[in-house]
Specification:
three-stranded antiparallel β-sheet, alpha+beta, 165 residues, 2 domains, single chain, 9 strands, Nucleoside Triphosphate Pyrophosphohydrolase, Ubiquitin Ligase Nedd4, Chain: W, 18% helix
């Protein structure tokens, strides 16, 4: 989101060169820059002790492809807290361990995805209302369940499989 007016005082913003940042929106009244904002989300490949990945079906996202657990970060929340919360909310699972594995910029939606590999010992799902169904599939089969190559989900599964070699 690009600011055109100051959210504090309502003044129309001007553009000012600010060091290495180049031209940025500037409030002359408040004497501060207002950098572009974007959403930050987490995405997690959840794997159980049997080497299976949790694949979610969420019709509001796709009728054709499965999804990994994902969700928006809340103000004041760390990425690790967010991924634990989302896994608990969407699947009812407890996180036994997690590892941040990368970040992806999603130009189409203008958001940053922070990816995690997550271990759980749980295998029984307690689904939220936003998940139509979920299943455990062998991780190598997950590549064929999620959105195709070029998606963050595909990149996450591929990266996990590559780490096993």
């Amino acid at each position: 989101m690009r600011f055109h007016y100051c959210p504090d005082c309502g003044s129309s913003l001007e553009t000012r060169v600010l060091g290495d940042e180049g031209k940025v929106p500037w409030c002359a009244k408040c004497q501060k820059p207002l950098f572009d904002m974007f959403s930050v989300c987490v995405i997690a490949l959840v794997v159980n002790g049997r080497g299976e990945a949790a694949i979610l079906r969420q019709g509001y996202i796709s009728e054709k492809y499965g999804n990994l657990v994902s969700g928006y970060m809340k103000p004041g929340e760390t990425a690790e807290e967010c991924v634990r919360r989302e896994i608990g909310e969407e699947l009812g699972l407890t996180v036994a361990g997690l590892e941040i594995v990368g970040t992806w910029w999603m130009e189409k939606k203008g958001l940053l995805m922070i990816g995690f590999f997550v271990r759980t010992e749980d295998t029984a799902f307690t689904l939220s209302q936003e998940v139509d169904r979920a299943s455990w599939v062998p991780v190598e089969d997950a590549l064929y369940e999620v959105h195709p190559e070029g998606s963050v989900s595909y990149a996450m599964v591929r990266k996990y499989l590559d780490s096993l070699e």
